[in-house]
Amino acid sequence: NVDRIQKIVNGLRSLSRDAERDQMAPVNLSVIVENVKSLAESKVRGAGIRLEIAKPPEVVLLCKESEIEQMILN
């Protein structure tokens, strides 16, 4: 339970900060998807919705992680 809460808090911090000056960096797509999944699950759980996401391929993106997380979450 504490780990789940920590993931949610870290995800919210990441999404809420200004990433304009972040450098592009290699990030595994599955890490990005897992971060977004944790946040999305916390939002929909109260509505009785079960979120299932197929495991993404092992792909490394050169990106600004927070921008990709925001795009997927939206």
Question: Explain this structure to me?
Answer:
The model has no long low-confidence stretch (mean pLDDT 82). The chain is built from three helices and two strands, in the order αβαβα. The chain is globular, with a radius of gyration of 13 Å. Helix 2 crosses helix 3 (65-73). Strands 1-2 form a two-stranded antiparallel sheet. The chain is 54% helix and 11% strand. It has helices at 2-16, 29-44, 65-73; strands at residues 25-28, 60-63. By secondary structure, the chain is mainly alpha-helical.
| N-to-C SSE string, H for helix and E for strand | HEHEH
Distance between the first and last residues' Cα: 25 Å
Instruction: Compute the average pLDDT.
Output: 82
State which percent range the strand residues make up. Answer: 5-15%
Strand order of the largest sheet: 1-2
Radius of gyration: 13 Å
Query: Helix fraction?
Result: 40-55%
Low-confidence stretches: none
Which structural category do the helix and sheet elements fall into?
mainly alpha
What is the overall shape?
globular
The strand count comes to 2
Main β sheet profile: 2 strands, antiparallel
Helix segment count?
3
